């Protein structure tokens, strides 16, 4: 069997609430291959965003091992933290596209220039950038700045950025959460089409049960063992 693109095991994460440790992830394991998709579900506060943050290196687990492509991050073998951060940053630039609840756009750049910058940083062509904005229904807003568009339009621009970088792995946190039903359906279609066409892996955190059924795998964080 081909090696999975992403593999994680023994992931643990606690936060503190006052003096009390609160376990969010407990001995969690997952793996995902090219062309596969995983729906992350669970009640609010069950750890979906925390897990996505850990899987792209924006947050550190207390323990555990993660492999993304050829990069291995093992809490049992600590490297210098700046070296670890640099490896994660390189992955996020070229191989791991993230679409989080707060769209991460550069405020001083137009939507189109945000998408172009993302493509350039990933070493991809800038030619299809305008087309991605068109396909996500915000082509006429290409010259606007992020503070001149709505939250849902910023979220679509963030998706265009991920599509333009053509990553091996996409991590999306409620990517259609702030969109109306019609737009959400169009954006979801694009997301799954892109994933199928480029055979990338997709992890989607969602409260939408119908959306979760479209993924090839399902992990309900609400069913993790209690600490
Ligand atoms: N930096 C932090 N410090 C303390 N607690 C935190 C921190 N980040 C998250 N938490 C807590 O960890 C738990 C998991 O949060 P997380 O955002 O991962 O949940 P979620 O499943 O994504 O929720 P939602 O569906 O509401 O987005 C919550 O109880 C949250 O309050």
Automatic annotation (TrEMBL):
Residue span, ABC transporter domain: 6-227
Keyword Iron-sulfur listed: no
A molecular-function term among this protein's GO annotations: ATP hydrolysis activity
Gene Ontology CC annotations of this record: plasma membrane
Keyword Metal-binding tagged: no
Pfam name, any one: ABC_tran
UniProtKB keywords: ATP-binding, Lipoprotein, Nucleotide-binding
Listed SUPFAM superfamilies: P-loop containing nucleoside triphosphate hydrolases
Name of the protein this chain belongs to: ABC-type lipoprotein export system, ATPase component
